Amino acid sequence: MFLQLLARRTRRVMTFIIRSVPKALAASALFTAAFCTYKMISAPESTEPVSDILMYMSVCFVLPLIAFMADEMLKYKTSLFHKYDDELIGNAFTGINHKSSVFEKGLELFHNGDFRNALEVFTDLGNEEKNMTVEEKGVNEFYRGRCYHILEACPNAVICYENALANGFYIPELPIFIARCHAQNGYTEKAMKLYEDLLIRKDYQYSNRIRCEIGDMYLKLNEGKTALKWFEEAIERRESYANALGGAAIAQTMLHNIKEGEALYRQALLNHIEDSIGFTRYYKEVQAAVLLEHNSD
Fold first, then answer.
1. pLDDT per residue over 107-129, tens digit each?
2. Whole-number Å distance between alpha carbons of 167 and 252
3. pTM above 0.90, yes or no
4. SS in 3 state form for 92-151?
5. Pick the CATH number of 80-171 from 1.10.1060, 1.10.10, 3.30.70, 1.25.40
6. Residue ranges per domain, the chain?
7. Burial category of 160 from C-beta neighbours within 10 Å (exposed 0-12, middle 13-18, buried 19 and up)
8. CA angle 199, 160, 15 (to 5 degrees)
9. Looking at residues 135-151, what average pLDDT do you find?
10. What's the pLDDT score for residue 43?
């Protein structure tokens, strides 16, 4: 166990060194050029011993190398290899090689919200790298799926998520992501089947979110009555309580029950619903559309 941990730590340090060397070389070249220029201007006739020049160049390389390595370590904090999602990625892409470097670039783009370019990096990696392990293929396909999902290309997202599963990748949120994509693709029955399977699993970590997920699916289909049924069940069970109240508020408003919707809306805010700003915007849009319909009648 100790030797395994030592090997992982050694690989991590080597990774930091390799990432820092190009930056240190660039800084060294810049400092050396500046020093030579200064010497030529201030003392054009004097000559420096070769040993002094070599020592200066060494110092100009070593000091930036230490600084850049320290910067890398601060970025990664307690993570062994990856700046983000270290526990999720596990032992994938931990080598000192091209594929790990490319994956890290994609991961950085993904967490900076540049999903299109991240998708391009992950896709190129999957197409070009023939020596990826099964675990790495699963991780890479998952991140491709997340990019497609966020970009609302849900048919492609489902394919990638299912490829990730086929390669042994799994996190508890993954079935929910797949169900959401099926729903967005218009396959409500497929999505419902996945949700029902999750509801009967006693060991499922996010079982308290499923009824709200189903309610959200029916809200997007403008089926307020069915959505309300699932949200009311969640409220009764105190599952994802604030979100259930918020969903019920929107469903009641869709059904033209303005007063009931307003009361539930206020309860949702009092119970600290997630993304209260986005929820309020959505609720007000639905309410305005219903009131406009009333006025036109």
1. 999 999 999 999 999 999 999 87
2. 43
3. no
4. CCCCCCHHHHHHHHHHHHHHCCCHHHHHHHHHHHHHHCCCCCHHHHHHHHHHHHHHHHHC
5. 1.25.40
6. 2-77, 80-171, 204-297
7. buried
8. 110
9. 97
10. 61
